[in-house]
Amino acid sequence: xPWIKSVHVQKDQPALSRWTLATNQFGRDWEFSWLAxxxxxxxxxxxHWVSEPGSASMGLNVNNRGQIRFIRKPGGCNVSLSISYxxxxxxxxxxxxxxxxxEGIISRDMERFRDYATAYDKAQVSSQQQAPKV
Length: 134
Fold this sequence. Notes:
It is a single chain. The termini are far apart. The mean pLDDT is 85. It contains one helix and six strands, in the order E-E-E-E-E-E-H. By secondary structure, it is an alpha+beta fold.
């Protein structure tokens, strides 16, 4: 995502990660961060998180949660992403305008991830085929 500036796992609490978004909108630089609790993953199936209450910056708390699911299928894997968030009242007038922008960014990110994973898989298969047999 082009707005994600950084994600840092907290050294003292590895179940928490600090997310920072940065963008230039309306002629001004904006930066916003919050803590997310990384919930216990389900191996080969799901990664999920929830924001920590009261952890946001700029006086705005955007409660959010999400999950990435991996569903095996013959010859590959389907990946789905779901994110939900509560828009702070001060941003409500912009929410409808921003929704299609955010959805477009996430859709393109998912396409890039698909392309990366497909290329990685092809490279792995190719290197295994070229490895000398002992």
